Structure formats: structure tokens, C-alpha cells
């Protein structure tokens, strides 16, 4: 018997998906010089790889990772006079 004895040919696909969202809201309180700011961001990333073992394309033996980082911040700015501003984060 000659040829490709004992060799199995198969390929496993790689998948990379990523989405991101970011928003900001500013609100003036009663025209008194107070400004409130809010920010929010969200990301989602998904990765599936067949190459967990170096040089391998074996289906079903890959690795996967999912990440979903989020960030939120609030800020407050007050105008005290034409020369002075107070800011809190």
C-alpha cells in the first residue's frame, strides 16, 4: 500500500467578530453654569481559531475567546466665574 496512508485532510475555519458602541450625553442644569456629562462604551469580540496546536488544522481542537469590556464615566463641570471653573470626574 502506497500513497497517503494514515493522513487525514481537513480544515477548520477561523472566525473573528467584533462590535463596538459608544455614546455621550451632555446636560446643562437650569442655565446655571452646571454641566453634567455621561459616557458609556461597549465592545464585544469573539474569536475562534483552529491553530491552538502549532501548525495544526484539526477541526474540533481549536481555541476560542469572548471578550465584552464596558466603560462608563460621569463628569460635572461648574462655571464659578468668568475666570474660574470647577470640574469633578
Please give a structural write-up.
Helix content is 0%, strand content 60%. It has 89 residues and is an all-beta fold. It has one domain. The model has no long low-confidence stretch (mean pLDDT 79).
Question: Main attributes?
Answer:
89 residues, mainly beta, five-stranded antiparallel β-sheet
Radius of gyration: 27 Å
Taking the alpha carbons of the first and last residues, their distance comes to 75 Å
- The arrangement of helices and strands along the chain is EEEEE
The count of β-strands is: 5
Number of helices: 0
Oligomer: single chain
Beta-sheet strand percentage? Answer: over 45%
Portion in helices? under 10%
**How does the overall form come out from the CA principal axes?**
rod-shaped
Based on secondary structure, the structural category is mainly beta
What is the average per-residue confidence, as pLDDT, rounded to a whole number? 79
